[in-house]
Specification:
With about 290 residues, this protein is α+β, with helices and mostly antiparallel strands. It has 14 helices and nine strands. The strands form three sheets. The protein has a five-stranded antiparallel sheet. The protein has a two-stranded antiparallel ribbon with strand order 6-9. Strands 7-8 form a two-stranded antiparallel sheet. A hairpin with a 3-residue loop joins strand 1 and strand 2. Helix 9 packs across helix 10, helix 9 crosses helix 12 and helix 13 packs antiparallel against helix 14.
């Protein structure tokens, strides 16, 4: 049943100026998002996602205080962990103006160049924020054994769900993680796909207005966000985002490729742990 129906009373209270039945709904890996006129309501899809809401709200509150040059969602109402009614867990955030780029927008060279320059500026701002003492104290740091734990989790929890050829493919991708350095130099969004970057159009050109879905934000390796940009927009566009010096940085490009190759496994492992069969099946598509 439609979430606008099953949660109509809650949504009507949280979005009093909107007609709930007419609001758009966005389905993410961890949350279902109901988009109101000036705020959005995030409803976790699993208990694990619900348990992470306070941490997510705290990270967003930290980001909202920074001058990043673009908007990030700001928590407006405390999560229901502090709500005496103990209704369905939720998080209410400010609505960021803009929409994701249309799939064919970057086919035009002048549009692609404009968007690439703004992606590069976005990453530069996140790198700069990574040196802020307040940010470093508030946001989680990528653990030194993160990739080792990830590989162990995939082998333990997912290998039985794969075909023989799928396991061989996964082993190659996991083995490559051993060469990744431990970096915590930048704020890393962690899921910088096209659907999470919002734009408005001015004189035929896109203007980056904000970034959504900071569930996986950490202090880590900026190659993770670069890998997401490549996965979403392609290698040619990524080359436009990278500075001339970084394009020739073989170590960086290797890190980008290595991390990008884990995206499907990351999705599957998160889904397995969150008991989300739909996302699990999608993540394991090429491993079965």
């Amino acid at each position: 049943m439609d979430i606008r129906t099953t949660h109509h009373t809650l949504l009507s209270r949280l979005l009093p100026d909107d007609k709930v039945d007419q609001l758009p709904v966005r389905q993410g890996q961890f949350h279902t998002v109901v988009i109101g006129s000036d705020r959005v309501v995030c409803l976790p899809r699993t208990r694990a996602a619900a348990n992470r809401l306070p941490q997510r709200a705290a990270a967003l509150a930290t980001l909202a205080k920074l001058d990043l040059g673009f908007h990030t969602p700001e928590p407006l109402i405390p999560t229901t962990s502090n709500d005496p009614n103990h209704e369905t867990p939720f998080l209410v955030l400010s609505r960021i103006p803009g929409e994701p780029l249309p799939a064919d927008a970057l086919n035009k060279a002048h549009v692609a160049g404009t968007a690439a320059a703004q992606y590069a500026q976005l990453l530069a701002e996140l790198a700069h924020a990574g040196s802020d003492k307040t940010v470093r104290a508030a946001l989680p740091h990528a653990s030194e054994d993160r990739w080792r734990q990830f590989a162990a989790g995939v082998r333990t929890e997912l290998f039985d769900l794969m075909s023989d050829s799928g396991r061989r493919r996964a082993e190659r991708e996991l083995d490559a993680l051993d060469d990744l350095p431990h970096l915590t130099e930048a704020v890393v969004h962690g899921d910088l796909g096209p659907e999470n970057v919002l734009w408005e159009w001015e004189h035929g050109l896109p203007h980056l207005t904000g970034v959504l879905d900071w569930d996986d934000v950490t202090l880590g390796d900026p190659a993770e966000d670069l890998a997401a940009i490549e996965a979403g927009h392609g290698h040619t566009f990524l080359a436009q985002v990278l500075t001339p010096n970084s394009r020739s940085n073989n170590e960086l490009t290797t890190r980008i490729t290595t991390i990008r190759n884990t995206f499907a496994l990351q999705q599957a492992l998160y889904a397995q742990r969150d008991n989300d069969p739909e996302q699990l099946a999608d993540g394991l598509t090429h491993y079965r």
